[in-house]
Each structure stands twice: as structure tokens, then as C-alpha cells.
Write a structure and sequence with these properties.
The chain is mainly β. The chain contains five helices and 19 strands. It has helices at residues 223-231, 243-247, 329-333, 429-432, 493-496, and strands at 4-7, 30-33, 64-76, 79-89, 95-103, 119-128, 133-141, 149-155, 163-168, 177-182, 188-206, 255-260, 266-269, 282-288, 380-401, 408-416, 443-445, 451-453, 463-464. Strands 1, 10, 11, 15, 16 and 19 form a six-stranded mixed sheet that branches. A hairpin with a 7-residue loop joins β8 (149-155) and β9 (163-168). Mean pLDDT is 80; it is low at 36-45, 47-60 and 443-451.
Length: 504
């Protein structure tokens, strides 16, 4: 759509967001076992694979470590097979192969249900003293690396086998690199990286109305209606303004007829002639007394009343603002508290009380003035919010795990940035500890002086720039109706019940 896109991702590699170095021992891939089974409260901490001895010594010697790593086998670029393997050591010189921990064939996309094959990256294992389970977190992805899921598996023993539990998006978004950390109090944390695109929004520029005169159907200017719809003229709003002329038939063209009383024959008396009807043989019938000597009266004196029901008066609708919805003058006329009325006020044309009638000013109780004169202002950024720019960056999220270590619990903190030189995520742990040794400064102070766990999100809010703009609270400010003319008038159900009313 032409919007700018900025990427602040610093490091890029052919095989992803980090260099994948096979065979490299990472700190997060190592599990240190306690020197004796009592440390875990178990009688047996090993799934014995040595049937030649009846006693199990796995984990009873000091400083036993297990290294978990993924082993991929690609027979074809689109096919992946393999497993998470493990080996153990006490001196980092002699290693013992512990076998397969989890086969890739057991992996499932439980988020979108996509088909495999899947592979695993960077498995990490922690022991949960509450569930007495070894919990493994891993990255689960496909050949195209388009999933970015996390996977969880559990086992009763450090050397497996591990039972696959689920795949998920921690805190709702993809993860690209991750590791686990266990604090001194047993609280576990998932440290991971993810990408997020922040959108910067600004209100759209809205063209301000250009004042123009009211037009007739042929495009010519209707000066009377232009003035009335711009200023309100009471004389243009009086249906009985020529009541006297109507009484005298001066509102119709000149036509006086003499009618023979015997034969019924009629003859017309020309204007200005001295000829009169012959009484008693004829009587006079006056059909109109418009003066034919003047252009303005030859067809009769016409009322200045501008009827909102006349289709000719509703041809023109303001259209200088393309995205504004203007309605007919009749709909605006009737939108106020006094506009929907009987045009003649239920007074007959020959009512003798016409001279003493009261003529109210409807300039303030109706939207008769729907085209007021105004200056043409520059465009204003008061329209709907639109994306001006998008910025993509890499973030590090530290999420606290639930008590069973199988999910995140919503308490997290995030940092924008990347680790240089391929550093492992665990290297930031010491840097993020606060002075009171509370990891990652989880607490926040409330107004009453107490503290509570801080619930955050890995989703960034849109950045909205309202400098020099007045943001609209709804989308009704630029339209006089919703679906049909008059559906926002003061007497409409939408206005009375829902409060969706047209502005005066």
C-alpha cells in the first residue's frame, strides 16, 4: 500500500536469525544432576539401560551432567527424520551415550494442524520438584522454518524416554531461539527471542468542505435557495407570505371572463380595456389578476416560500468532501425539532386570521441552514487512523513458567535487542537481576504501596501520532445519515434510543 517499512533486525543468517552450529555445546542444553537421588526425593533417578547390574548408580556420583541435542537426518531436502539424543558425563572428557530421548515422528502441530515433517532445535530440560518430572522445552519447526513453535515433553527420568505433550506459541507469538532457567527458589523461566512488527498510525487527511452555491438541476445557481440554506431567511420559510395576493387572485395570470346569464357564452376581457361586463345580461368571473405588463407578475405573483418537499429544491447535495455523506435538504430540514411540520400550518388559504398569524423563526430548531458560508481550510488529519510506517525488530522475552513448567503464566518482561557474537540467551540472566536479587524485577508498585506480579504482553501497541490532529471518537462525524436519509434526525429511533443524532 505504499507505506514505509523499516527493519531494525541487525543480524541475519542464511539458516535463520542465528548461526546454527552443529555439535556446539550450549549452556542451556546441559542438565546438571544432584550428587545423590535424595536431592530429588526419588529412590531412582535413572531409567536403567544396563541390565548387567542390579543397582542403579546413575546420578549418585557428584556433578553428573546430561547434554541434550537434536540430531537431524536429511535423505531429501524436503524430508526430515531424526531425534533428540542425549549423552552424559562427569568430567567432560568421558561421555556416555544415553540414547534417543524423543523421536521426531512423535511431533505434532497442535496449533494450526499443519502436516510435517517437523524437526527440533535447542532442547533444554529442567527438573520439576512438584510434579517429579523432567520437563523439556524445544523449538519445533518445519523445513521452511515458517512455524516457530515451542514444544514441551516430559519424562520420569533424565535420560528419557520423553513423552511429547504439546506444541504452542508462548505468550501468543512465534519463538525463534529459546532456553530455560531455574531460579534458586525453583521458579522456572523461558527465555526466548521473537520478532514483532510495530505499526505507526496517523489520522487520514480529510479534505475540508469548499463552500459552493446551491445548484438547480441544469447546473445554474439557485440564488434564493443558496441564501436560505446559508443564512436562513424567514421570508423564504412562510407558506402564507402572499395570502393577500391569493385573496385578490393576483397569484394567477390575468384572466377575466364575462358570462352570458342566458346562453352561458363566455368572453374574455383583455387587460387594460375599458370594456366591462354588460349588467344585468352578463356577470364577471375573475380567474386571475396577474399583471401581464411585467415579467414578474404576468404569470401571477409567486410566493417566495421555498418548499422542502419540492424535488427541484433537493437536487443539489453538498459534495465537496468525497468521503462525507450529505443528505437532501428536505431530510436536513426535517432533522430538527421543528422541521417536520405541516407546511401550511393547517391554515386554509382564505382563513380570515391569516393577517394576525405568528410566524416562528426556525433558524435554530431545524437544519434548514445545511450549507452555511465558511472559509475553505487546509486538509486536517481528523480521518480514520491509517498505517504510515511499519517497523520490525527483534525482542527477548523472559516468561515465568507455570508451577508444572508446561506453559507460561502471563508474567513476563520484554527487551528489544539482540545478542552479539552468537551469545547464548542464558548470558543475560546475571545482567537482568535487580539489586535485591529478584530476578528480572517482576514486581510493580501499586498506589497503596503494595506490589503485585506484573502481567505484560509480547504484543506491542500501535504507535499513534496525533500531533496537530483532532482524532474522532466515532465514524459518524462526517456523515449526515447512516443508511437512509433522516435516520439520524432528532426524532429517529437511532437518535432517541441509541443517541446517534445528527449535529445541528
Amino acid at each position: 500500500e505504499g507505506r514505509l517499512f523499516t527493519s531494525d533486525v541487525k543480524f541475519r543468517h542464511d539458516d535463520g536469525d542465528r548461526a546454527h552450529e552443529k555439535g556446539r555445546v550450549l549452556l542451556g542444553s546441559m542438565l546438571r544432576l544432584p550428587p545423590s537421588p535424595e536431592a530429588h526425593g526419588d529412590d531412582t533417578v535413572m531409567n536403567s539401560i544396563d541390565s548387567s547390574t542390579s543397582s542403579n548408580t546413575f546420578g549418585k556420583r557428584p556433578h553428573k551432567h546430561i547434554w541434550y541435542g537434536e540430531h537431524d537426518h536429511r535423505s531429501h531436502p524436503t524430508l526430515i527424520s531424526g531425534a533428540i539424543m542425549a549423552c552424559s558425563t562427569q568430567d567432560f572428557v568421558t561421555w556416555k551415550h544415553e540414547g534417543v530421548m524423543l523421536n521426531y515422528i512423535n511431533l505434532t502441530d497442535m496449533v494450526d494442524g499443519s502436516d510435517g515433517p517437523f524437526h527440533v532445535e535447542k532442547p533444554s530440560v529442567l527438573f520439576n520438584s512438584l510434579s517429579k518430572k523432567y520437563v523439556m522445552w524445544m523449538l519445533v519447526d518445519n523445513v521452511k522454518r515458517s512455524l516457530g513453535m515451542a514444544g514441551v515433553a516430559t519424562s520420569d527420568y533424565p535420560n528419557g524416554p520423553f513423552e511429547f505433550v504439546r506444541t504452542l506459541y508462548p505468550d501468543g507469538n512465534q519463538t525463534r531461539d529459546q532456553t530455560l532457567f531455574q531460579d534458586n527458589d525453583g521458579t522456572a523461566y523461558l527465555i526466548r527471542t521473537y520478532y514483532y512488527t510495530t505499526t505507526y498510525l496517523v489520522p487520514e487527511a480529510v479534505m475540508q468542505p469548499t463552500w459552493e452555491s446551491v445548484k438547480n438541476a441544469d447546473g445554474t445557481i439557485n440564488f434564493a435557495l443558496s441564501y436560505h440554506r446559508a443564512e436562513y431567511e424567514p421570508g423564504y420559510d412562510d407558506y402564507h407570505d402572499i395570502y393577500m395576493q391569493r385573496w385578490r387572485m393576483e397569484d394567477k395570470p390575468w384572466k377575466v371572463i364575462c358570462v352570458n346569464r342566458s346562453t352561458g357564452l363566455e368572453r374574455e376581457v383583455p387587460f387594460g380595456e375599458d370594456e366591462i361586463c354588460l349588467d344585468p345580461f352578463e356577470y364577471k368571473k375573475v380567474l386571475g389578476q396577474g399583471n401581464p405588463m411585467y415579467e414578474s407578475t404576468k404569470n401571477g405573483i409567486q410566493s417566495r416560500f421555498l418548499d422542502p418537499n419540492d424535488p427541484d429544491n433537493n437536487v443539489w447535495i453538498p459534495s465537496s468532501v468525497p468521503n462525507a455523506k450529505g443528505q437532501s435538504w428536505k431530510a436536513n430540514y426535517e432533522a430538527g425539532t421543528c422541521g417536520k411540520r405541516s407546511i401550511d400550518k393547517d391554515i386554509q388559504l382564505f382563513d380570515p386570521n391569516l393577517p394576525s398569524r405568528e410566524q416562528p423563526n426556525r433558524g435554530n430548531c431545524s437544519n434548514i441552514v445545511d450549507n452555511p458560508i465558511h472559509p475553505t481550510l487546509p486538509d486536517k488529519r481528523i480521518g480514520k487512523l491509517t498505517a504510515l510506517e511499519q517497523r520490525r525488530a527483534k525482542y527477548v522475552a523472559v516468561s515465568r513458567l507455570t508451577d508444572d513448567y508446561l506453559d507460561t503464566d502471563g508474567f513476563l518482561t520484554t527487551y528489544e535487542g539482540e545478542l552479539e557474537d552468537g551469545a547464548d540467551l542464558l548470558t543475560i540472566v546475571n545482567q537482568l537481576r535487580s539489586k535485591d536479587d529478584s530476578l528480572f524485577d517482576w514486581k510493580m508498585e501499586k498506589s497503596n504501596g503494595n506490589s503485585e506480579d506484573m502481567i505484560r504482553s509480547t504484543f506491542q501497541d500501535h504507535v499513534i501520532d496525533r500531533y496537530g490532529a483532532i482524532g474522532r471518537e466515532n465514524d459518524h462525524d462526517d456523515k449526515q445519515y447512516n443508511v437512509k436519509f433522516g435516520d439520524r434526525s432528532l426524532f429517529s429511533p437511532g437518535c432517541v434510543i441509541d443517541g446517534d443524532c445528527i449535529d445541528n
